[in-house]
Amino acid sequence: MKTQNKELLVKYINYLENVKNYSDHTCTAYKNDLEQYFDYLKNTKKNLFDNEDFVDYLFSLELAKSTINRKLTSVNNFLLWSSKLDKYKGKTFRKSENLKTEKKLPNILTSNYINNLIDKLPTSTAKDVRNKAIIELLYSSGLRVSELVNLKINDVKNDGSLRVIGKGRKERILPMTDQAYKIISLWIKNNRAEFLKNNDNQFIFLGVRGQQITDREVRRVVKLITGTFPHNIRHSFATHVLDGGADLRVVQELLGHSDPGTTQIYTHISKKKLQEKYKRTHPRG
């Protein structure tokens, strides 16, 4: 990668972190996508804004359409930002259009499955209590993994509510189930100290080394216990709340979606379940 491109990339990632307030996970994805774009420029000897054949290059790597779309979005946003810099004023580029993909409904756990699973989780050791608190809270409040790992002790309120900092540093106050509040309180009061290495550490969930737990460790714990990933628990939470009669707007607020269209997918899931139940129960279904 050319030195000037390296410097531009560093400057852009810094912008995403400090101005856009993007998560570490998102910034890493942008960095990886843009490094691949710079490799493409180097191999094809093209200039910074010559992105027209980048989609063909990605196709040649046999990537999934969803992956290609993410990379195209990363490059589009980066080039738009670059075109506003004094050095590149007047430069234009062709915005890459997203490829059409089939919308896949997320995998949803049944309420019976997840309730029975959580009820049977052991609490014999500090690690057991921590892991049960993680699963309980993900299902109780529909958190993203990034939101869960960044929770601090004072984010848990005495009235059973939870202060969460979501995407774009947006704050929302969420309810918790009684079970979630009890197990988190148990973890904080009786078990967290077994993991704690530094008394200044205020993060609720700690990893095996006593530091703030990582996204990767949470995903590993959840996959091991539930057989699925944290985001599917979030999907299940949203679907179950909607099936229980909650308004779509309420679900949008709980999930922290800025765009109502993002939440709309859960209505399709509920309709699908309704059709399945109809087919199973109607005498002539």
CATH class of the largest domain: Mainly Alpha
Helical percent range? 55-70%
The coarse silhouette is globular
The string of secondary-structure elements, in order, is HHHHHHHEEHHHHHH
What percentage of amino acids are in beta strands? Answer: under 5%
Give a brief description.
With 285 residues, the protein is mostly helical. 56% of the residues lie in helices and 4% in strands.
Descriptive terms for the model:
285 residues; mainly alpha; DNA polymerase, domain 1; hpI Integrase, Chain A; 2 domains; two-stranded antiparallel sheet; 13 helices
Q: Can you walk me through this structure?
A:
- The protein is built from 13 helices and two strands.
- It has 285 residues and is mainly alpha-helical.
- The chain folds into two domains: 3-88, DNA polymerase, domain 1, CATH 1.10.150; 111-279, Intergrase catalytic core (hpI Integrase, Chain A).
- It has a two-stranded antiparallel ribbon with strand order 1-2.
- Strand 1 and strand 2 form a beta hairpin.
- It is globular, with a radius of gyration of 22 Å.
- The mean pLDDT is 86.
Write the layout of secondary structure elements.
Elements: H1 3-18, H2 24-44, H3 54-60, H4 65-82, H5 111-119, H6 126-141, H7 145-149, E1 161-165, E2 171-175, H8 178-191, H9 215-226, H10 230-243, H11 248-255, H12 260-263, H13 265-281
Helix pairs in contact: 1-2, 2-4, 6-8, 6-10, 10-11, 10-13
